[in-house]
């Protein structure tokens, strides 16, 4: 993501004044003006003035997490489910550094998050004071922008800038670091009325000549494909993507981050491509002659060996971030702009190509190699669990996942009908993400069914915050796909390291009994016939979280699979 630098002096704009306030009070009032309703965090010495101001903010709900990493992941889940900016806070030193993983995750997946950290008082900054860490230095490479606020008079402007930068253009995380004495200092605040960073205005409308060239190229294609990613969802461009696909009948393949960008039951949608995507989506991409790539970054989980990715294709690349175009794969027709605007303009000009033979080929591939699974020796197939979740919800729930085999199985079998319904850690691949993200999504969308699907390894990284879900009585099913291993690590060791299972087999606790100790419901399932009743019971639980510990086949592998750094030609289809 391109860095967005904001200069210290800001141009004079219309402002509104308030009575004298402390820096912490200014912060809370600015959050209120930014329409923040939920704040995930954990207090500490440097942030005590902020928490004292929050004590009076009855219109902002503070969610006390038990670890700051959970606060950051919950803010990401909140933002991705709602489309609004997620907010998290931590104290100085270890509190701030515990946010780093979640902030990096937000950066990699282009999620609008504002992190607010306390800092040691100004006179001791740089003196190795107690719980001091240079958090702006630490997070400079993993934020879209960050700032250390050195005057209470600057708090309002800097926080308003943070929200604007986080949500404008390509979204991303922003960090605001506030020393404790700045939070305590009195000032006469000024709140910006208008655009707080007038020099930051991303290009929204694509170049008309490039759009015309793209329309011409698509209209003359014989084997076109649309390759759609998370930029469709963050750019609210799902309707425009669907309209273009319906007008042209061009097949659409989605990235992991792009799941839900189009109704996955739509006849033009081929679902997910990439390392564990469908064979037919990958074959179609490999044989395409023109590829319209929208809101994607040509990451290695999709392309494999770059020189072998879609070798016969000409690429049209649309992205709001110019730094992404040509970064990994050269674009024959580059278009910088907002995905929704550019797709709408493109749909108005493109002539539908003649692609009946192309669809016939894709249909033949699809019928020959659909996703499939089998139950072995009375054991529970993890894919059966994922398929059943899809069937029971009809693809209408918000599903969050952790990272590993269960993540890929859910991506294969869960077919969301709308955007912001599948939330997973894509670029960073963060274990421990799924459960906190589900909490954030549930706070954002309390009236929707939210389900966390986690692995036994990842769940144990953030499981302590089950008490947070219990405390807030979140109706949240947590499905633990428990294969007694770090499943993806075990799979790679099996395939590529001569089955030398080094530190990938887990000794697990009884997750159902642990849930009960926290005050949640717990259900343990170890036979196939128990799965559906357990899932139905969990989905119907309304007064708090329900953990379903599903003991699945420990030797099941996630296929298809394109080995890392290889091409579609090396795809592993079946065991």
Structure description:
The protein is of the alpha/beta class and 575 residues long. 37% of the residues lie in helices and 17% in strands. It folds into three domains: 18-192, Rossmann fold (3-Layer(aba) Sandwich), CATH 3.40.50.970; 208-368, Rossmann fold (3-Layer(aba) Sandwich), CATH 3.40.50.1220; 382-551, Thiamin diphosphate (ThDP)-binding fold, Pyr/PP domains (Rossmann fold). It is built from 23 helices and 22 strands. The strands form five sheets. The protein has a six-stranded parallel beta sheet with strand order 4-3-5-6-8-7, with helices on both faces. It has a six-stranded parallel beta sheet with strand order 13-12-11-14-15-16, with helices on both faces. Strands 18-17-19-20-22-21 form a six-stranded parallel beta sheet, sandwiched between helices. The model is unreliable at 2-12 (pLDDT under 50).
SSE inventory with pairings:
Elements: E1 15-17, E2 21-22, H1 23-33, E3 38-41, H2 48-54, E4 61-64, H3 68-82, E5 86-90, H4 94-97, H5 100-108, E6 113-119, H6 135-139, E7 145-148, H7 155-167, E8 173-179, H8 180-184, E9 186-187, E10 190-192, H9 208-219, E11 224-228, H10 230-234, H11 238-248, E12 252-254, E13 269-272, H12 279-287, E14 290-294, H13 300-303, E15 314-319, E16 333-336, H14 339-349, H15 356-368, H16 382-393, E17 398-401, H17 405-413, E18 422-423, H18 434-444, E19 450-455, H19 456-462, H20 466-471, E20 477-482, H21 487-496, H22 511-518, E21 521-525, H23 528-540, E22 546-551
Parallel strand pairs: 3-4, 3-5, 5-6, 6-8, 7-8, 11-12, 11-14, 12-13, 14-15, 15-16, 17-18, 17-19, 19-20, 20-22, 21-22
Antiparallel strand pairs: 1-10, 2-9
Helix pairs in contact: 1-2, 1-7, 3-5, 3-18, 9-14, 11-14, 12-15, 16-17, 16-23
């Amino acid at each position: 993501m391109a860095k967005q630098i904001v200069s210290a002096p800001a141009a004079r704009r219309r402002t509104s004044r308030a009575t004298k306030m402390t820096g912490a009070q200014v912060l809370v009032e600015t959050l209120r003006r930014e329409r923040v309703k939920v704040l995930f965090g954990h207090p500490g010495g440097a942030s005590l003035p902020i928490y004292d101001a929050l004590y009076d903010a009855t219109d902002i709900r503070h969610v006390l997490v038990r670890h700051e990493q959970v606060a950051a992941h919950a803010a990401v889940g909140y933002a991705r489910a709602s489309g609004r900016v997620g907010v998290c806070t931590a104290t100085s030193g270890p509190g701030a550094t515990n946010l780093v993983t979640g902030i990096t995750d937000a950066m990699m997946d282009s999620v609008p998050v504002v992190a607010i950290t306390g800092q040691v008082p100004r006179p001791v900054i740089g003196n190795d004071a107690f719980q001091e860490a240079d958090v702006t230095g630490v997070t400079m490479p993993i934020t879209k922008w960050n700032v250390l606020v050195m005057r209470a008079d600057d708090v309002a402007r800097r926080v308003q800038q943070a929200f604007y930068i986080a949500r404008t253009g390509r979204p991303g995380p922003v960090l605001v670091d506030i020393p404790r004495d700045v939070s305590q200092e009195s000032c006469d605040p000024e709140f910006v009325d208008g655009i707080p960073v007038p020099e930051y205005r991303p290009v929204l409308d694509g170049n008309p000549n490039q759009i015309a060239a793209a329309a011409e190229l698509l209209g003359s294609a014989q084997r076109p494909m649309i390759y759609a990613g998370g930029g469709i969802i963050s750019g609210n461009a799902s309707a425009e993507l669907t309209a273009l696909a319906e007008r042209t009948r061009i097949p659409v393949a989605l990235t992991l981050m792009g799941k839900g960008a189009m109704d996955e039951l739509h006849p033009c949608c081929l679902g997910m491509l990439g390392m564990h995507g469908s064979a037919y989506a990958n074959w179609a991409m490999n044989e395409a002659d023109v590829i319209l790539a929208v809101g994607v970054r040509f990451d290695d989980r999709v392309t494999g060996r770059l020189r072998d990715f879609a070798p016969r294709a000409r690429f049209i690349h649309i992205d709001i971030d110019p730094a992404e175009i040509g970064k990994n794969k050269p674009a024959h027709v580059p278009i910088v702009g907002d995905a929704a605007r550019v797709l709408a303009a493109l749909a108005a000009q493109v002539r539908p190509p003649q692609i009946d033979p192309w669809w016939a080929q894709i249909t033949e591939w699809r019928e020959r190699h659909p996703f499939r699974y089998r139950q072995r020796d009375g054991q529970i197939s993890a894919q059966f669990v994922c398929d059943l979740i899809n069937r029971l919800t009809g693809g209408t729930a918000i599903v969050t996942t952790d990272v590993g085999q269960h993540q890929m199985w859910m991506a294969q079998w869960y077919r969301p009908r709308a955007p912001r319904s599948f939330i997973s850690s894509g670029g960073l691949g963060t274990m421990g993400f799924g459960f906190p993200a589900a909490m954030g999504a549930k706070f954002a969308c309390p009236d929707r069914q939210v389900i966390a699907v986690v692995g036994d390894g990842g769940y144990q990284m953030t499981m302590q915050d089950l008490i947070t879900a219990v405390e807030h009585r979140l109706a949240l099913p947590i499905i633990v796909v428990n294969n007694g291993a770090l499943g993806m690590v075990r799979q790679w060791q099996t395939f590529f390291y001569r089955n030398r299972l080094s530190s990938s087999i887990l000794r697990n606790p009884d997750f159902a009994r642990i849930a009960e100790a926290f005050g949640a419901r717990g259900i343990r399932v170890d036979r196939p016939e128990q799965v559906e009743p357990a899932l139905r019971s969990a989905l119907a639980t309304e007064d708090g979280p329900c953990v379903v510990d599903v003991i699945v086949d420990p030797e099941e592998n996630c296929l298809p699979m394109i080995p890392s750094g290889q091409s579609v030609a090396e795809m592993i289809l079946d065991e």
